[in-house]
Design goal:
Order of helices and strands: EEEEEHHEEHHHHHEEHHH
Helix content: 40-55%
Distance between the termini: 121 Å
Number of strands: 9
Oligomer: single chain
Structural class: alpha+beta
Strand content: 5-15%
Largest sheet: 3 strands, mixed
Length: 357
């Protein structure tokens, strides 16, 4: 059958897409003057409300996709426009223009242009609607059984703008997937390897704007922070045992200070508390940072089942007895404290210290 399209859609400088809208018994709650969704035929709903039928059972709208490449390295004219650009035309004609070399592209520019040319057939505005059915229409969001809420007079513009935005998103996705690889490949899909060093270099030189935003940071500063922080942590682990070892080896006169420091550690204070109340039995490693019992004991359970008054009384009696034996009125308080700690440690067989302090 011979068919000659109308001049309006018979264009060689654009890629034409035609969209057909079928009414499908949809009625409108108000008159619609939009040329694509026009509805002016009065009718009534089952409950007697006024409604309107579409003007035509099928309506059509056409869109023309045009593309243009420019070479920014060729400068601009007096009006600020690039001096060397292709005409606004369809993707297939633009392909021939790029291959002709008339735009003076460099090898890198030529490779980038071919990436766009390969993506154009899949990102035309017609591809934004293909396979989506009624869900491709923004108007379908306000349809219910099958009553359509009133639409503005420029609804067709909103629909076309939505299709165009989808096409741009698909184009961006095609460009990104050149470097990342496709998200999915069907059994009939094909993948092409890069052709030449320029195509391969684009896989590692591509930058994409992050819609969620981004943050700049200094790698050198992060390295310094981790290095300095690691040094501080290591020093905190090593400094105390190192100082204790040096004082024990080279400063013999500081034994009582070292013992006082050791007894103030958390686990030693806990040991003294349990030992004072008679819990845990004989203790080992009492001269170390982590003392342990000779036998396995559940100290928490033992302490829990002791009578509260008994615990308090035994602790007070033990403390009072120790202070009475070691404290004299002529001895300074700081020396009394040291003597009490040393006596407690000797009683626990912690160290064998000189008899004179």
């Amino acid at each position: 059958m011979d068919w000659e399209p109308a001049p309006a859609i018979n264009r060689t400088d654009a890629d034409i897409s035609l969209f057909f809208l079928s009414a499908n018994a949809v009625v409108y709650l108000g008159q619609v003057d939009d040329p694509f969704f026009g509805a002016h035929k009065p009718t009534e709903l089952d409950r007697g409300d006024q409604a309107y039928l579409p003007d035509r059972p099928v309506q059509m709208i056409g869109c023309a996709d045009q593309h243009q490449f420019c070479n920014p390295n060729r400068g601009r004219d007096g009006q600020g426009r690039y001096q060397r650009c292709s005409p606004l035309t369809g993707g297939y004609v633009l392909h021939d223009v790029v291959h002709s070399g008339s735009l003076g592209f460099s090898p890198a520019q030529d490779a980038v242009s071919h990436r766009f040319l390969n993506a154009f057939p899949l990102t035309q505005i017609g591809q934004s609607v293909l396979g989506r059915g009624a869900s491709a229409l923004l108007a379908s969001r306000t349809v219910s059984e099958p009553v359509q809420a009133p639409l503005p007079n420029d609804q067709w513009r909103l629909e076309v703008a939505s299709w165009f935005n989808v096409a741009l998103a698909r184009l961006q996705g095609e460009i990104v997937e050149y470097a990342t690889g496709p998200l999915s490949v069907s059994t009939e899909g094909r993948m092409f390897r890069e052709n030449g060093t320029t195509d391969k270099a684009m896989c590692t030189q591509q930058k994409v704007r992050d819609p969620t935003g981004y943050t700049n940071f200094n790698i050198f500063g992060i390295v310094i922070m981790f290095v300095v922080g690691s040094i501080i942590i290591v020093i905190s682990w090593v400094l105390e045992p190192l100082v204790g070892f040096l004082r024990q080896r080279f400063w013999k006169g500081s034994d009582y200070k070292r013992v006082q420091w050791l007894l103030n550690s958390t686990l030693q204070l806990q040991r003294i508390a349990f030992e004072t109340t008679g819990l845990g039995g004989p203790w080992l490693r009492v001269g170390k940072t982590v003392p342990i019992t000779r036998e396995k004991h559940d100290l928490g359970e033992m302490y829990e089942y002791m009578d509260a008054s008994d615990r308090h009384l035994r602790f007070i009696l033990r403390k009072a007895s120790t202070e009475d034996e070691l404290t004299s009125p002529n001895t300074p308080r700081s020396d009394n404290t040291s003597r009490t700690m040393v006596a407690a440690m000797e009683d626990s067989r912690l160290f064998r210290l000189p008899s004179k302090i």
